[in-house]
């Protein structure tokens, strides 16, 4: 979302410099960008009949964000903070189709150590198959 709004504003500003402000496209709002990431994303995947918005009967995923974190302090505009300031460290709780997957910053029902071991084994296999040493400090 941050990249989308920043890129669009950069292009609009460039157009204003080159062709005058009256010929520049309108700037996207943070609410429009949120819609791109939620309901319009679902529409693009043809899943808007079952996800993408908080509507009774839909299988909505819900993400609760920490608006008290330093990277968003002081909170002046919630949609603006979500689009332009927040990132993965702000994700406190995640519900997927009604099931809690992350609670108060901790993943639920996942063996992170085992997953990390699988990721390392996969990396080691790929590097070995390619005949390349793992460049940990290069």
Alpha-beta content class? alpha+beta
- Strand residue percentage: 5-15%
- The ordered H/E elements are HHHEHEEEH
The helix count comes to 5
How many beta-strand segments? 4
For the termini, the CA-CA separation is 32 Å
Shape: extended
Task: Please outline the major beta sheet.
Answer: 4 strands, antiparallel
Widest sheet: strand order? Answer: 1-2-3-4
- Rounded to an integer in angstroms, the radius of gyration calculated over CA atoms is 21 Å
Mean pLDDT: 94
Oligomer kind: single chain
Helix content: 40-55%
Low-confidence stretches are none
Q: Could you provide a short overview of the structure?
A:
The chain has 138 residues and is α+β, with helices and mostly antiparallel strands. Helices cover 42% and strands 12% of the residues.
Provide an overview of this structure.
The protein has 138 residues and is an alpha+beta fold. Helices cover 42% and strands 12% of the residues. The chain is built from 5 helices and 4 strands. The protein has a 4-stranded antiparallel β-sheet, with no helix packed on it. A hairpin with a 2-residue loop joins strand 2 and strand 3. Helix 2 packs across helix 4. It is extended and about 60 Å long.
Keywords:
138 residues; alpha+beta; 4-stranded antiparallel β-sheet; 5 helices; 42% helix
How would you summarize the topology of this molecule?
Layout: H1 2-19, H2 30-37, H3 39-44, E1 62-65, H4 78-84, E2 91-96, E3 99-103, E4 106-107, H5 112-130
Antiparallel strand pairs: 1-2, 2-3, 3-4
Helix pairs in contact: 2-4
